[in-house]
Specification:
Distance between the termini: 19 Å
Shape: globular
Number of helices: 6
Radius of gyration: 14 Å
């Protein structure tokens, strides 16, 4: 995972989802439901744990004091929430095969600022790993 982090700039997960929606007939919400917990897990580190923990505490009422544990609980809560809405949990469930993951990862980086101005900077290999984790 990249180590450089900024607070401003491109919204990482939206940039990846826009490419998937451009290639396949899925709604933006379905793409985000699949990608968001995978992205959160991928970028979780000592640096990002406080912000992800804050999200877990403020959105889902997680009471865990340890930031990393709270962030992990938040990711679980996102998955459970999506499941409660009967959203697909994987890209394959959403009708997205993995045959174009390389191309989509490249396009996500090429058409956005996720490699230079994102919360956690992502390169092509990072995006592909996120996509692979969503299979």
């Amino acid at each position: 995972m990249p180590s450089k982090q900024t607070a401003a700039g491109a919204v990482d997960i939206l940039s990846i989802e826009h490419v998937i929606s451009a290639y396949y007939d899925i709604t933006h919400g379905v793409g985000l439901a699949v990608l968001t917990p995978a992205w959160m897990s991928y970028v979780l580190s000592d640096t990002t744990a406080p912000r992800l923990a804050r999200f877990a505490r403020e959105v889902f009422g997680v009471e865990e004091a340890d930031n990393r544990k709270a962030a992990e609980l938040g990711i679980q809560k996102v998955r459970a929430f999506n499941q409660s809405l009967e959203m697909p949990a994987t890209l394959s469930e959403a009708g997205v095969p993995e045959d174009l993951f390389d191309e989509m990862a490249s396009e996500a980086v090429r058409t956005s600022a996720i490699a230079s101005r994102a919360y956690v900077k992502l390169d092509i290999s990072d995006v592909k790993q996120i996509l692979l984790s969503c299979r």
